[in-house]
Amino acid sequence: MEALLGRPNIAGERIGELTAQGSEADLVMFRSFEPGPGSTRFGLLLNEEAIRFLHKAGAGVWIDEYDDE
User: According to the lineage, what is the superkingdom (predicted)?
Assistant: First the structure.
């Protein structure tokens, strides 16, 4: 998401044009919890800027999480 937000705002508008014509766009996020001394359970965060971008792009969000403990 950071890579997309770092681009000019035109990327969201262009993706939005494509989704308006019937294309589909999704942000796919994958997270795996693995046991160990350095493991953390911080959540996923989509801030206002990210949500605005996804809305403009007409994109959905698909989140997969796995717990290997």
Answer: Bacteria
